[in-house]
Amino acid sequence: MFDLVIRSADLVDGTGAPVRMADVGITDGLIAAIGDDLGPGAREVDARGLMLSPGWVDIHTHYDGQVSWDEQLSPSGWHGVTTVVMGNCGVGFAPARRDGHEFLIEVMEAVEDIPGTAMHEGITWDWETFPEYLDAIERRSYNLDVVTQIPHAALRAYVMGERAHEDATEAEVAVMAALVEEALRSGAAGFTTSRTILHRSAHGLVPGTTAPDDELLAIADAIGRAGHGIFQLISDNQGVGDDRRLLRAIAERTGGTVTYTLAQSPLDPMAYRRGLEDATAAQVEGYDLRPQVAVRPTGMLFGLQTSLHPFITHPTMKALDHLPLPERLAALHDPETRARLLSEEDTATDIVTKILMSRWDDIFPLGDDVDYEPEATMSVAAMARREGRTPEEVVLDLMLADEGRALLFAPLANYCDKDHEVIREMMEDPVAVLGLSDGGAHCGLICDVSFPTYLLTHWVTGRTRGPRLGLEQAVNLQTQRTAEAYGLNDRGSIEVGKRADLNLIDLNAIALEAPEMIFDLPGGSRRIVQRAHGYKMTIQAGEITYVDGVDTGSRPGRLVRCSGTTEPALAGR
Q1: pLDDT tens digits, residue range 460-479?
Q2: What's 253's domain CATH number?
Q3: In 42, 104, 181, 189, which residue has its Cα 20 to 30 A from 308's Cα atom?
Q4: Which residue, 86, 88, 314, is CA-closest to 192?
């Protein structure tokens, strides 16, 4: 007898194979049998008319602090994610000096927009070294599996203390390399770093941003000695230009995968294509370079409760910030207050912030139907022209809608042509891998954690402005492809012997709700979340964790210790 049998499901197994009807039998957390009319199970689920897929594997999240206080690691689990990889972009909380906690929190708050109050109150700090951090995660249980990486900023702060932003000595580089090797041998999945000027805190650029190549290559050598490990980075060069030689050298030294962010930039709209072509050439040359791409425009959300919006630096708005939302809303409906606000100039001193707040051609109402592929005619600028009003007037009225909870969509990248064709080109390129959801991060400005659901609601069933993706193709991109990129070969497809991490989905009902601001982080801090409909059941290691989007209380998720073998070790199991 099986522990669980899922009967008559429309099986989309993650490999790209055609959908077929089948039963799936589960025993001891693994897929034990796939076929017709399997034997009985201690529990059985009638899945007729529903799609059964592997659980989503999300390789780019920032739950490094949230693992201390949240067993659900929401909102990822709400979207069928069963494995998250965290520690990305060079920021995180281990290793950590006992006197260095405040510094790491400040960096994470600035770079990933996670409220400092939540981290101060929620992080347990029952570790110092990276192996101790893994042990701390291992002592906890979740409703999904956790994979983590050692971040460069935390590593530098641990080794160099107050000199973390300066050049490291040869001896300090050797210590960092040794600690990376130790972390990998303890179960870390890789090493990560940031090389973008966009990542900065009150202390300046994130430690490691301007580290010389020799430092990165010494760490790459350590990865090679450990015998496994991803090298992940975000870079302004997006894999080309000055990155080209360095990434090949890192891949050669590690003997493994190098993955990095790739998106269409308004500064050079065709650079992404050169990036894809160069990564393809690198793979032909024997270097495993994998650009990491998003499934929709990376987009800021503007509203009265968010971290940024077009009026946030105006004196009148700043004077209202302390008021509860209903009182702020009432004040903004006052004709005199409204006129004063609209007459003011913003007081932002940062030129990038000024630009982001006033790109009227690139700001759109998101709406209840959460349209992430709006036409150019729906922009604030276009609406203002049609209505004979200023963009500021249009934006203010849009923000006041829905009792002040309405959100505007302001794409940062991947939307130069005001459609998703560039995104489709990147997603379908064989060299690319899906990522960049940033689950757990950007709590007051961005909510891209719903990327896996968007694959279905937009790319498979809902897109009207261009070609869609096939169902089997979309599932493969978010399961087998992402799992294999990180060597997680025990999951990502529905095959006998693989882990029983599964989603049972009603494709006729799958839908995204509009993002909303809630205040449930430690200390009552805010975060933007987005919920979904249509997930009938999520199964983690054979245990049902969600039914119709409701948490069952089951916590089979654990730390995944990576070891360089084809099957990662599951801590505590």
Answers
A1: 999 999 999 999 999 999 99
A2: 3.20.20.140
A3: 104
A4: 88
Q: What is d(CA 203, CA 99) in angstroms, rounded to the nearest whole number?
A: 16
- What's the number of CA atoms in the CB half-sphere (13 Å) around residue 389? 13
> Does the reported pTM lie above 0.90?
yes
Listing DSSP states for 261-309 in one string gives E---BTTBTTHHHHHHHHHHHHHHTT-EEEEEE-SS--EEEESTTSS--
Domain count, the chain: 2
Structure token digits, residue 408 = 């505007």
Helices (H), 139-212: 152-160, 170-186
Among residues 294, 322, 345, the one where a domain terminates is: 294
pLDDT tens, 140-176?
A: 999 999 999 999 999 999 999 999 999 999 999 999 9
State the residue range of the domain holding 329. Answer: 302-410
Taking each helix axis from N to C end, the angle separating 325-333 and 335-343, rounded to the nearest 10 degrees, works out to: 90
For residue 121, what are the CA distances in angstroms to 443, 525, 529? 16, 10, 20
Return the HEC string of 23-86: EEEEECCEEEEEECCCCCEEEEEECCCCEEEECEEECCECCCCHHHCCCCCCCHHHHCEEEEEE
CB neighbourhood size of 370 (10 A) = 18
Phi, psi of 170 (to 5 degrees): -60, -40
Least Cα distance to 457 among 423, 392, 507, 406 occurs for 507
Cβ within 8 Å of residue 19, ≥6 positions away: 10, 11, 12, 51, 471, 472
Residue 474 included in any domain: no
CA distance 79 to 347: 39
105 domain residue, yes or no: yes
Cα separation, 510 vs 291, whole angstroms: 29
